[in-house]
Write a structure and sequence with these properties.
The complex is a heterotetramer, with two copies of chain A (306 residues) and two copies of chain B (249 residues). Chain A has two domains: 11-106 and 161-292, Glutaconate Coenzyme A-transferase (3-Layer(aba) Sandwich), CATH 3.40.1080; 124-158, no CATH class. In chain A, strands 1, 2, 3, 4, 8, 9, 10, 11 and 12 form a nine-stranded mixed beta sheet that branches. Chain A has a three-stranded antiparallel beta sheet with strand order 5-7-6, covered by helices on one side. Helix content of chain A is 33%, strand content 19%. Chain A is globular and about 55 Å long. The longest helix of chain A has 13 residues, at 260-272. Chain A has 306 residues and is of the alpha/beta class. Chain B is an alpha/beta fold and 249 residues long. Chain B has eight helices and 14 strands. In chain B, helix 2 packs across helix 8. Chain B is globular. The chains are: A alpha/beta (306), B alpha/beta (249). Chains C and D meet through helix 4 and helix 5 of C and helix 4, strand 9 and helix 5 of D.
């Protein structure tokens, strides 16, 4: 193994090198492990005309849309989970407030299937879905094939191969061998589907830590282009075993995003006004960090011997 | 509604759970008549036993102490499409006379009056779960004759019946409202009133639907929530009343 | 949770209740976790006309074929890995020695895809495969569809939904929540594809052991019909962390299976002549057991707290 | 052959490894010029560093200390079909003039003279790996003009060329034998002699192929194995000479 890894770099360099204007970008993570740190750096570097893909756009894409980074949104459920709406997104869609936003809409399964096809380098993925719904009528990319065995009509969605996928994870070695526990979401499929992969982790660990428990590795280093160490990089989302979800902030976002001026002030204070994730955490303050820090509940090991 | 929804669940059912009332209903059922209920969250937590009320479908408390974690691909392919889910809960901004549900847009799709969140997993729950239980307060606005957009297919509609479409699940078999229960008719799948909460009369209920609501030949009056159920809901499962109002049990 | 589980039963009952004459049976496990104990009980109960499906028939199906249980074999690589041939299988195919055996042949990917389709309850699975090969010419179930996006010709295989799948694993609770580490093979797909699932484990553990590390659970109890505790049930295959592969036995099999009389003697001694797995292990002797017992190499735990 | 095969590997390659000679070659390459080689076994072990010579493709020693374990579905869908594998090794009972490989049957399929193991993953390795390296001793029996059954597609054949079939990988780009190396010609993909081991003459090699073997305009003479390579193979990597004979390095 090489003594140093050229993949290990600060967030600034990873975004500068691997996220370009006009790219199709996936920042995945289903509630768990959503990489806000990467999104904020994309905002700071003022990327434009991005096609943003995610099952649940969540606050992370509401912020990118508010900051004018997005041209198009590919999604399956656009709300602030358990709280209300994504108001920057709704303003763009309902009032066409600039920048206007193109929508491409699926169900969760449809978007999971698009990423699975992308990961498998198949041009489409079959699924039993959409019969009796209006979704195919508003999305011409939802099509179908006839089963060569039963004659059944089976729906299809096309492969999604993003230019770049950004995955947050608990830990990786410096070559990008990445371990995740807790909810997996669609992180593996999103990473394998991408032309370029940025992994952002709470901790860089020695390769020996990864090798001591290979069944925990979700993403192999061979498909990873950049490894960024960014503790608390998923806040206000969470990292199982590191920190809890900041549900208060999800509630606060309702008021912030409803008011354009408040949203602008928030971006100025927490994104444009800080240099990096450490600056953001400083703004957030130590009390919140302390309150959200995970309590220990350590699993037992298993025997890999033979 | 939470108590009624809980009573729709059978011991041993595998339930696809959302946040809010369905989650409460499931936990109430587990604490009462259905200890063998298995809760599967869209996020991939299987057999969750959260030690706090989860405020999101991907709450870390759903993972800690659960029986298994499934990827989203497995949740949708192997569990839901695979026919392993007995019960799914759905709600929505609009529910029509055949149980079609709209959670996408009010108004036209291209120029929406209100942009709603969209399907999420609702579309595939409606297609694949063995039984779908819809939970929503009854009002003419929420129960129009026809929905503006079909996100989740009901019993019948412009694309044909479930049988004609060969949908694997039985679709919405019960609609639990705040005044009573609707069920699809055998004949054409149109929802009709089959049960009332105590003290509610059928006439007042019929005015709350956006179409001439049919009343089944026999309408049951439902037993009220027991003290035990109310205590569990108000003091144990949702002590801060995040999801239940006074009226709501 | 119920205080007792009706799923927990001895191997004899599990096979008697869930494996019937004429069934399509999958005993999976790629090198790792191959359930010989279940196969031997099937032989003892003299099941007939089985359609046996497995990527690598291995010694386990060579024994079932030799004992006259099989009518048909669905497979993708039929050899004694690293050693030579499966001679009972070859006699059936090359010399049509009774009982004759029908073959249905795929590549590994094809059979993995068949089980994936079965698990997903899709009637087919698409794969980029078989172009330029003779496999479709000898297997009419290898067909194709045209991609509705690119026009590409994509191969297909039909879903495989076995009547029963038997999975060996390191541990499960008594409801069948099953944890596996080391090589996964195609165990998950085979289990989800099946109408009935028998899980055979080295150890039954308390539900709390499973719940302490839910990311290790490969197969949920909700799809499991029977749970059998059968230590050493995978020998001469192996169970990571419990015992090593008995490579010597794989080498010995070459001579045993080449000679019909020797094979019959072996079946008499190690299958028909013993009542159960404990009897088999007794025949095998303590030295071999001691030599194969795994040495400890325990992984560290991870934090599931929040 | 192991030394020659090792020299075909580049540092940083992701290699799909089988047991036997290919495994030896990979470990030799890692110990010499390609320390960054990543070994992926069909069984799902990724980045394996076995501390004993694995005797099966699913040896537990391949898992202990590896970087990742992938399910078979992921191995074939995401790694191999996903285009993540640079090099695959293949052998077979028969290899024809276009590099098509037979590992299925000798004779007719329905009435075989010899029933071979079948494809395993060979068919998809031949289709998807960026480069395929074939390793086999040269003889007229093993290298007939046409194989009895095409298990793994070569450069050209009765179903058309790789380009016409739009196969993603480049197919067999090198055939490493015990006397020299064959490569597909630019023109039609027919294998031709491009390199010889020291002391071997082209005439004797040409007699060992089952078709009139073409000789490339320039034929290189390969440097012999170094003492270091031989020492590694014979004393470290395969001390019991399970896979190498005297002649075989």
């Amino acid at each position: 193994m090489p003594p140093t890894s050229p993949k290990l770099m600060p967030m600034r360099d990873a975004i500068a090198r691997f996220v370009h204007d006009g790219d199709t970008v996936v920042i995945e993570g289903f509630t768990h492990l959503i990489c806000f740190a990467a999104a904020h750096e994309i905002i700071r570097q003022r990327r434009r005309d991005l096609t943003l893909c995610r099952l649940t756009p969540d606050l992370v894409y509401d912020q990118l849309i508010a900051a004018g980074c997005a041209r198009k949104l590919v999604f399956s459920w656009a709300g602030n989970p358990g709280v209300g709406s994504l108001h920057a997104l709704r303003r763009a869609v309902e009032k066409h407030q600039p920048p206007s936003l193109e929508l491409e809409e699926y169900s969760h399964f449809g978007l999971v299937a698009r990423l699975s096809a992308g990961a498998a380098k198949l041009p489409f993925w079959p699924l039993r879905d959409y019969q009796g719904t209006d979704l195919p009528a508003v999305n011409p990319l939802i099509r179908g094939v006839t089963c060569p065995y039963t004659g059944d009509a089976i729906a299809t969605v096309p492969a999604l191969n993003p230019d770049v996928t950004i995955v947050h994870a608990q830990r990786a070695d410096r070559d990008g061998n990445t371990q995740i526990w807790g909810l997996y979401g669609v992180q593996k499929e999103a990473a394998f589907a991408a032309k370029r992969v940025i992994v952002v982790v709470e901790e860089i660990v020695q390769e020996q830590v990864v090798r001591a428990d290979p069944n925990r590795t979700l993403i192999p280093g061979i498909i990873v282009d950049a490894v960024v160490c960014e503790p608390w990089g998923a806040h206000p989302s969470y990292a199982q075993g590191y920190y809890d979800r900041d549900n208060d902030f999800y509630v606060e976002w309702e008021d912030i995003s409803r008011d354009e001026a408040a949203l602008k002030r928030w971006l100025d204070a927490f994104v444009y006004g800080v240099a990096d994730r450490a600056g953001y955490m400083h703004e957030l303050g130590p009390e919140r960090q302390q309150r959200l820090t995970a309590k220990p509940q350590i699993s037992a090991g298993v025997n890999y011997g033979f | 509604m939470a108590v009624r929804a809980a009573r729709e669940l059978h011991d041993g059912d595998v339930v696809f759970v959302g946040i809010g009332l369905p989650n409460l209903a499931c936990n109430l059922a587990r604490a009462t008549h259905a200890p063998g209920l298995v809760l599967i969250y869209e996020s991939g937590a299987v057999g969750a036993v959260p030690d706090r009320l989860p405020v999101s479908i991907g709450d870390p408390a759903l993972v800690t102490g659960s029986l298994a974690v499934a990827s989203m691909a497995d949740v949708f392919q192997f569990y839901l499409q695979g026919g392993r889910i007995q019960v799914g809960f759905l709600g929505g901004a609009q529910i029509d006379r055949y149980g079609n549900i709209n959670s996408t847009v009010i108004g036209s799709y291209d120029r929406p009056k209100v942009r709603l969140p969209g399907s999420g997993g609702a579309c595939e729950i409606a297609i694949h779960a063995e039984r779908v239980i819809v939970v929503a307060p009854l009002s003419p606005r929420s129960f129009p004759a026809t929905v503006d957009f079909i996100t989740s297919p009901g019993q019948n509609g412009k694309y044909g019946s479930r049988q004609a479409l060969r949908l694997p699940g039985r679709g919405p078999v019960r609609v639990v409202t705040d005044v009573g229960i609707l069920e699809p008719s055998q004949a054409d799948g149109e929802l009709e009133l089959v049960a009332l909460y105590p003290g509610v009369d059928a006439e007042s209920v019929m005015k709350k639907a956006g179409w001439p609501l049919r009343v089944a030949p026999t309408v049951t009056v439902l037993p009220p929530p027991t003290q035990a159920e109310l205590h569990l809901l108000r003091d144990v499962l949702d002590p801060n009343h995040l999801y239940i109002g006074k009226r709501d049990a």
